[in-house]
Amino acid sequence: MTGPLERTDPVVRIAVDLNRCQGYAQCAFLAPDVFAMHGEEALLYAPEADEEQREQLARAVAACPVQAILVDAVDVPAEAVSGAR
Predict the structure, then answer these.
(1) Where are the transmembrane segments (predicted)?
(2) What 8-state DSSP symbol labels residue 40?
């Protein structure tokens, strides 16, 4: 079993401009493992996702009518993978 600091795959970082988001829910439909609607207007999302979800995320970003979603891939630092300091 590996812990969260033992990941070797890149992490996808997600940011949503919640002031811009209008609750159209296209992202929740296209990437339900990352985005979810809470009620009719509030968006909940995971700020990081696995690289394997990148295709779903790309579709969600493209489908957002107000372009409120930003996705960026980042590498996990070597210290986090090996436990070195």
Answers:
(1) none
(2) T
